[in-house]
Amino acid sequence: MTALIRRVAEQVQRRYLAAMRAEPQTFGGPVEQKRSWTRGLWRGARKTCPQCGRGRLFSGYTRTRETCANCGLNLSGHRADDAPPYLTIVIVGHIVVPAALAVKQLHHPPLWLQFAIWGPLIIVATLWLLPIAKGAMVGLQWANRMHGFGDGDDLDEADAGNPGADALT
Ligand SMILES: [Zn+2]
Question: Which of 4, 36, 102, 157 has its CA 20 to 30 A from that of 50?
Answer without folding.
Answer: 157
